[in-house]
Design brief:
The chain is built from nine helices and no strands. By secondary structure, it is an all-alpha fold.
């Protein structure tokens, strides 16, 4: 699995420098919606890597390697999780520095808010990957575009309202995104493995 991760990161730094720069710029901006966009976009980058695998026929070649299907599928989830984590950490560090320089730049509890957005990103990742493993990136492109549009609208218009609603309600409600994210992972990974096996 380590080799598969290195392959995807190499592709990312080799082929998507502009998009990585875009994610970095949005991650360091003080607005919460900008960080949300960066984290959500990071969660969708595994789909881009999967599309590159299919176009280059890597998905066929890797079946000849001593690598079980389970690891092939899990690697894409791990790849997405690492991208979400790194983007959130960069955003959190940038906001912490901005707050230290000027307390009025960033308002609210930064890390709980970012954690909430990370949960949403994980849910989007878990919704997206099974469809791509089933239909391929080309056929699943409409779903991918729809998910991106929904994600951008969610981050742009509803994230701060949802966070405000959570902060004003019980602590139990604050765990709802975490619970949904965990359930999404537990359901999505076995489903993706099953769908990938059927398409071999």
């Amino acid at each position: 699995m380590k080799g598969l991760l290195l392959k995807d990161f190499y592709f990312l730094f080799k082929q998507m420098k502009f998009f990585l720069l875009l994610v970095l710029i949005f991650a360091v901006l003080p607005q919460l919606s900008s960080s949300g966009f960066a984290i959500l976009y990071a969660a969708l980058l595994p789909v881009t890597a999967l599309g590159y695998d299919q176009r280059s026929k890597w998905d066929q070649f890797q079946l000849m390697l001593p690598c079980p299907v389970r690891d092939i599928v899990l690697e894409k989830y791990l790849f997405g999780g690492l991208l979400i984590l790194v983007t959130a950490l960069i955003s959190g560090c940038a906001k912490s520095i901005a707050t230290a320089l000027d307390p009025n730049v960033v308002t609210g509890a930064v890390f709980p808010q970012l954690f909430f957005i990370c949960c949403i990103a994980v849910i989007f990742l878990c919704m997206n990957l099974p469809v791509m493993f089933k239909f391929g990136v080309e056929k699943g492109r409409l779903f991918f575009i729809a998910l991106v549009v929904i994600g951008v609208l969610t981050v742009g218009f509803f994230t701060e309202d949802v966070i405000r609603f959570i902060n004003q309600n019980t602590a139990l409600l604050s765990f709802l995104p975490v619970l949904v994210a965990v359930l999404s992972v537990l359901v999505s990974i076995p489903l993706s493995i099953k769908l990938y096996n059927k398409n071999i």
